[in-house]
Amino acid sequence: MQSFCFLCCLVTFGCWSCDRGSAAPPSILFILADDLGYGDLGVYPSHSEHGNISTPNLDDLAAQSMMFTDAYAGAPVCAPSRCTLMTGRHTGHCTVRQNGQVLNDSEITIASVLKQAGYRTAIFGKWGLASMNPSSLTWPTAKGFDQFFGYNDQANAHNYYPYWMWQNQEKMYFAENEKASYANCGYPYTEHCIWAQELFINQSIQFLQNVSKLDDSQPFYLFLSLTTPHAGDIGHDFETGVPSPYETPQYANQSTWPKVERDFASVITISDDQIGKVLKALDTYGLSNNTVVFYASDNGAHSEGGHNYKFFDSSGPLRGYKRSLHEGGVRTPLLIRWPEVTKGGTVSNQQWAFWDFFKTAADIAGIPASSLPPGIDGYSLVPTLQGGTQDQPRYIYHEYCFPNEDRTGWGQAVRFQDWKAVRYDFRNEVELYDLKEDIGEEKDVSQSYPEEVRLAIEFMDVAHEPGPYCGYLPPNPN
Known about the structure:
Blueprint: H1 2-13, E1 27-33, H2 56-63, E2 66-72, H3 78-87, H4 110-116, E3 120-126, E4 147-151, E5 164-167, E6 170-173, H5 182-185, H6 196-213, E7 220-225, H7 249-252, H8 259-284, E8 291-297, H9 327-330, E9 331-337, E10 346-348, E11 352-353, H10 356-364, H11 382-385, E12 396-400, E13 411-416, E14 419-424, E15 431-434, H12 450-463
Parallel strand pairs: 1-7, 1-8, 2-10, 2-11, 3-4, 3-7
Antiparallel strand pairs: 2-9, 4-5, 5-6, 8-9, 12-13, 13-14, 14-15
Helix pairs in contact: 6-8
């Protein structure tokens, strides 16, 4: 009933396509990396003794964009982070709070909202928020996307060379990958098999070409959800390495590096080249000037498949990595390019999190906040993108079932102003850090600032809604 009432409200509001005389709002392209660390892009701080990984296209995008130093993914792992991005709800009360869970049937996504407002919508790549039944209401095409090509299940996305993937509700098979393996695909070039991410790029470019051929100015929302540099395998869903289709020339001769690190660097550089092709397609098809481009990562740097996140200083100055509730697990690079609106080459410390994308995208599309579904969090970043100033959000909240800080159970974290607080299992003491003076969270100052600790606990208690999952608040936590 909630979905029906909301959509009625949005239809009542109307959309640009009802009046072809009005100017179309901007299109939106969101490019999401998978397990890319804060320090894995050259424009963000890191001090690796092995040098920065080459990302010339993303460096160029940064020069044309507003770059955010204090942006946050939705969670320290994949599925809940993507849930917050799609639904506009933080992990204190979003549906998916750990990997393996799926959206509710009635969940309203930003894709649904934009589609109802007249946008063409597509997702190419990793979804990871639905059941395995393509007829379910958790499927991307039931959640507002006109087109879907890629992985429905996040575990399947570990296989860089799958035998099949989903094209909307149908399986598309790739004979070249039927017996995919390191031996059968080729080494050091996997030229005998098809790399899934190359298909996502091709689909994206084809989508943009098709849009350019249409005799209208209908805007689009394209979610390009990459699978790199996440650990994976060839022909299996395991995480045995970071299988790059080839070692790029600048890394192939680094004989003192472990192969997995050559692969890790190569796959980021190859992904950068692929992103460059998509951005070039925007130019080629005359779509760049009215398209807002977002680039971010779904969580912090990974240390899986034999890769060590410290090899390239992937977390930069931040503490922790993927699955951590400290900054290295949740802070993400964020680049936003909005031609003729956002001044390129600017750097902002405005705090922003994935659930803020919902209201930001709606604002870009000209959809009034009063027409959005109830119960979502966040705010619109548009005033900052337009060169204005905004208050920082009251707090940014994260929770996760299995943090990797050598603690048992469940954890919470909250950022408010320059303070960062972390606690585990309700009962444990709160850690408190002053990020302005200690971005690496090395010194716990909780004993010196009891009022800030009290405030952090208040935010945590308000943000978390108990339920039948990890993080259930027992009747007697004392």
